[in-house]
Design goal:
This protein is of the alpha/beta class. The protein contains 13 helices and eleven strands. A nine-stranded mixed β-sheet has the order 1-4-3-2-7-8-11-9-10, with helices on both faces. Strands 5-6 form a two-stranded parallel sheet. Helix 3 packs antiparallel against helix 4, helix 6 runs parallel beside helix 8 and helix 10 crosses helix 13. Bound molecules: pseudouridine-5'-monophosphate and manganese (II) ion. The site of manganese (II) ion has 3 residues, from loops.
């Protein structure tokens, strides 16, 4: 492996890791493909500030000019936000060609986990993960995020998964792959915009210290793969389940009617849900990311105490 040719860790992140100070990785598909400009840039910068306020160093990840970057400048975040859907969405299979071409790329949960792991960052905060799509029994549309969770030793803190996915099948897949699914302060898998989904998680843990300890033990056991922490959206920002579920059903139908496939599916569904709900879902989306960033920073702090 000659990864150092391709990996660029920012000085701030490098120093924090050397000094065993907490670092939190962040993805960039949420910036380029998950939210409209300029809210995407504003949110990305706010997330970095929240992580700092909670004692950790933010490491937003992306591909810039063919480099796997861990820790971005404000200008780079602006480029990713302004570029929007013109920035290629980069999952694992996209890396060889994008890097060979010296292209930019917005990293998904998959590629952010990869970069974090290469850099030595253990905790990663995002909004939602990819999973098993509804109808996957015929489309076979299963996000590479699940395979990465099976392989790569990074804790991913999210707000559960949107019901654009088949949540039951997503949990079954994670179980098969040996990925522990934790509910933070809940026994139920949160459904991103809402605190409940009707599906149970594997374990409920209630403090950042407990999250850090379980992850630390996993590492000591030498178990490969990540750990998925699902953190419910704060009550005051959660959406009416009837409203959001109707919007999601409508978006899934439109996606099928228009025959949208492959890597376009998730960005199309996210944008359509936002259009249907007139921006209410965007406001909730932003708040749940802030909530996850805070939990990730505190957990990263606890994890440093164990190392
Ligand atoms: N789900 C969301 N918001 C997102 C994504 C998923 O609720 O922004 C993004 C993440 O970057 C995730 C990716 O890793 O989409 C999954 O894409 P796909 O389903 O094509 O694997
Ligand atoms: Mn897919």
């Amino acid at each position: 492996m000659n990864i150092s040719k391709y990996l660029e860790v920012s000085d701030e992140v490098k120093l924090a890791l050397q000094e065993n100070r907490p670092v939190v990785a962040l993805e960039s598909t949420i910036i380029s493909h998950g939210m409209p400009y300029p809210q995407n840039v504003e949110t990305a910068l706010n997330v970095e500030n929240i992580i700092r306020e909670n004692g950790a160093v933010p490491a937003t990840c992306a591909i810039i000019g063919g480099k796997l970057k861990c820790g971005l400048t404000k200008d780079e975040i602006e480029i990713l936000g302004k570029g929007g859907s013109n920035i290629p969405k980069a999952s694992r299979r996209d890396l060889p060609v994008l890097i060979a071409k010296g292209s930019d790329g917005a990293t998904t949960v998959t590629t952010t986990m990869m970069i974090a792991n290469l850099a030595g960052v253990k905790i990663f905060a995002t909004g939602g993960i990819g999973g098993v799509h509804r109808g996957a029994e015929t489309t076979m549309d299963i996000s590479a995020d699940l395979e990465e969770l099976a392989e790569t030793q990074v804790m991913v803190i999210c707000a559960g998964a949107k019901s654009i996915l088949d949540l039951g099948l997503t949990l079954e897949y994670l179980e098969t792959k040996g990925v522990t699914v934790i509910g933070y302060g809940t026994e139920e898998l949160p459904a991103f915009y809402t605190r409940k989904s009707g599906f149970g998680v594997d374990y409920r843990l209630d403090t950042p210290a407990e999250l850090a300890k379980s992850f630390h033990v996993k590492e000591e056991l030498g178990l490969r793969g990540g750990m998925l922490v699902t953190n419910p959206i704060p009550e005051q920002y959660s959406m009416d389940p009837d409203v959001i579920n109707k919007a999601i059903d409508e978006a899934v139908n439109m996606c099928n009617e228009r025959n949208i496939k492959g890597k376009q599916t998730t960005p199309f569904l996210l944008a359509t849900i936002k259009d249907i709900t007139g921006g209410d879902s965007l406001a909730s989306n932003i708040q749940l990311v802030y909530n996850n960033a805070k939990l990730a920073a505190l957990t990263a702090g606890e994890l440093c105490k164990l190392n």
